Amino acid sequence: MRALLYSAVVLWLARSADSPSRILITARVGSSAVLPCDCSEIMPSHSPHIKWRTYTELVFERLGEEHYEGEGYEDRVDVPEDKLKKGNCSLVIKNIRPEDAGVYQSYLVVKRSKRSIPTKWEFIQRVELSVEETREELFKGTSPAHNDAGMKFPDVRISILCLLSIILYLR
User: Fold this and answer.
1) How confident is the model at residue 109 (pLDDT cuts 50, 70, 90)?
2) Which of 89, 50, 44, 85 is nearest to 67 (CA)?
3) Rounded CA gap, 110 and 31, in Å?
4) Nearest to 127 by CA among 16, 46, 24, 26
5) Distance in Å from the first CA to the final CA of the chain
6) How confident is the model over 126-164, as pLDDT tens digits?
7) Given the DSSP bridges, would you call strands 77-78 and 91-93 parallel, antiparallel or unpaired?
8) Helix, strand, coil percentages, rounded to 5, for the chain
């Protein structure tokens, strides 16, 4: 059972780490970032309905003039309606925060011809946002003797893989 779990984790890590449709964007705390997205190839003839989300939460959704901004993203995210109508579904994030780092995915509603078939969300783009903290942000609330000296920790998936490898090796 452990070997099966280990194999599944390794496969997931390998698949997600080398995803060909993932783009890496880096932004500094307090700046703005544009997470690129182009839906011109699959644009519906009607008003486009776009959704951006992380693995755990909805970040932004737009249908025409109506839009929703997820918790913690209020007044900081947008997919401008005029650009969306032209097939540009890029997400603009203002005032970047350290907690904004992560993988974002965009989806577009593809309407079905028959009413009995449910609406389908078509995956468009996966973008990984890396947030660089300023020196002031790194030391905020800590004394220089007790902080991590600016060390960056590896991706959580790599940490999990290393931990699983150690556990399996010791058994």
Assistant:
1) confident
2) 50
3) 33
4) 24
5) 13
6) 999 999 987 665 555 544 444 444 444 455 566 666 566
7) antiparallel
8) 30, 30, 40
HEC assignment per residue over 5-50: HHHHHHHHHHHHHCCCCEEEEEEECCCCEEECCECHHHCCCCCCEE
Instruction: State the Rg of the chain over Cα.
Output: 20
At residue 61, the pLDDT reads: 97
Whether 106 and 52 have beta carbons less than 8 Å apart is answered as yes
Q: What's the pLDDT tens digit per position in 53-73?
A: 999 999 999 998 999 999 999
37 close to 45: Cβ distance less than 8 angstroms: no
Beta bridge partners of 68: 61
* Residue whose token pair is 């060909």: 20
Question: Directed axis angle between helix 2-17 and helix 156-170, to 10°?
Answer: 150
Angle at 115 between CA 117 and CA 39, to 5 degrees: 70
116, exposed or middle or buried, with CB in 10 Å at 0-12, 13-18, 19+? exposed
